[in-house]
Design a protein that fits this description.
about 130 residues
Length: about 130
């Protein structure tokens, strides 16, 4: 994906500052993923761009905002379970690469990898979260 122009980054940051979710913002900009918009709003990318940078981990300690209830959620529970159910016991590894799921679900591969590592969606306590190649 192409790097967004500065005025677009400012617009995203303003919308996020108003309380809009990254997934809602992304619906108005189909050339960019919610994950990419989140990175620009949080300052991971384009930190020197103008506009308000969102504070990180605003809801990390609130159990009522876990999973898809979180404003940072890019996937819903059904999608995450599909990704985590993709483990192949015979191979001892994932059937499909993170890039496959990322393209299918329109998120970045890092979003898929975070769920697979068990960094996100911990509350699901899915048996495949955190599994490593045999």
């Amino acid at each position: 994906m192409a790097k967004p122009p500065l005025p677009l980054i400012v617009k995203w940051r303003d919308l996020a500052q108003e309380g809009r979710f990254y997934t809602d913002i992304a619906k108005g900009f189909p050339d960019y993923t919610a994950s990419q918009i989140r990175h620009y709003c949080l300052g991971h990318s384009g930190a020197s761009a103008p506009g308000p940078i969102q504070r990180r981990r605003r809801w990390s300690d609130n159990p009522w905002l876990q999973g898809e209830k979180s404003p940072h959620a890019l996937l819903d529970e059904k999608q995450v379970r599909e990704v985590l159910d993709d483990w192949d016991d015979e191979k001892g590894y994932w059937r499909n690469a993170a890039g496959h799921w990322a393209k299918l679900l329109k998120v970045s591969p890092s979003t898929i990898l975070a769920a697979r590592r068990g960094d996100t969606w911990k509350h699901l306590k899915h048996p495949n979260a955190g599994r490593k190649k045999k």
